[in-house]
């Protein structure tokens, strides 16, 4: 089915721009990050609207891929189209119920079946067009339909896995964190990445493609978008708890998603732990649940970030504050892998640390953190310096 781009929102071929995050005044995220893979998978049955492809090699064409996950489980994936009939969507231009696409990664019983593409062809075409407009490149429309390490609709290996809710940065989609999500799934976690409609590019099973609005002011993000994101996250907990019966749950976010995760944990007692990836400011919430801060060293060392220092001081449960040297804001996403083989243009903030190394650090520390915070498994890695990861600086810890 050819995607139907909704005309009342901005031109999908407009150049990428950078967007501010809440009230910090710091421009962080690229505005039109990668979109949602539309699989209608009600009741855990997956049907595809496309298949993964590899573009024909050429001297100027990057061949994209993600490092394979390292856990014991193969990874399955599917998407859920969720409709909250208790809420009228305050962001929609017409009166309608709030609806979302949620991408799931989970431990699979086997690795049989087709590999899931990173993005569907229609969304890839829109976003590649945006990158081309900004970076002056001429990438083919199918560049972002490369195969991932996940199998579409593979049977689940565990019926009651711990759940990790992933809240993307503003303008980003859940798929942009596939490298992290596949790793956690291979380690036994059910990862639910939420695509927030009218925040990022979101494609629905009927072919609609909804795009973000033009208003991304600090007031809009704080007063309008953030409360909707938090309500969406709690709705997803409702839906997935009834369908998959997770044994325990955590919330993690990148950028604005960090703030979303903090607020969701504060409001929903079913969320037992959390983590923030380079979000700022995190606010005045005081949490009793275990919480980890991980960010770019140049932005979040105590000497330069009083917000993180204050937030950490308010935490009352087990807590960890660490920074990573050599990375920037968008290295906490799959952009860190793409930066070495693609010309992304000036809309993304990435550092000099090798992307595969940056992703490896995030995978190792997030797995250790959730094993500790959700499953009670101690780790010699957390809360101390180690020669294995000299890029990671521990600023404070109480574990």
Pick out its properties.
single chain; 399 residues; disordered N terminus; 16 strands; alpha/beta; globular
What does it look like?
- The protein is α/β, with parallel strands linked by helices.
- It has a single domain, classed as Rossmann fold (3-Layer(aba) Sandwich).
- It is 25% helix and 22% strand.
- It is built from 8 helices and 16 strands.
- Strands 6-7-4-5-9-8-12-13-14-15-16 form an 11-stranded mixed β-sheet, sandwiched between helices. The chain has a 3-stranded mixed β-sheet with strand order 1-11-10, with no helix packed on it. The protein has a two-stranded antiparallel ribbon with strand order 2-3.
- Helix 2 (178-186) crosses helix 8 and helix 3 crosses helix 4 (256-267).
- The longest helix is centred in the middle third of the chain and has 27 residues, at 218-244.
- Residues 1-50 and 54-59 have low confidence and may be disordered.
| SSE arrangement, N to C | EEEEEEHEEHEEEHEHEEHHEHHE
Low-confidence stretches: 1-50, 54-59
Structural domain count: 1
CATH architecture: 3-Layer(aba) Sandwich
Number of strands: 16
In CATH, the homologous superfamily goes by the name Alpha/Beta hydrolase fold, catalytic domain
Would you state the CATH class? Alpha Beta
Summarize the biggest pleated sheet: 11 strands, mixed
**What is the CA-based Rg, rounded?**
19 Å
Mean pLDDT: 84
Would you tell me the structural class of the helices and strands? Answer: alpha/beta
Helix content: 25-40%
Termini Cα gap: 51 Å
Give the overall silhouette: globular
Work out the strand percent: 15-25%
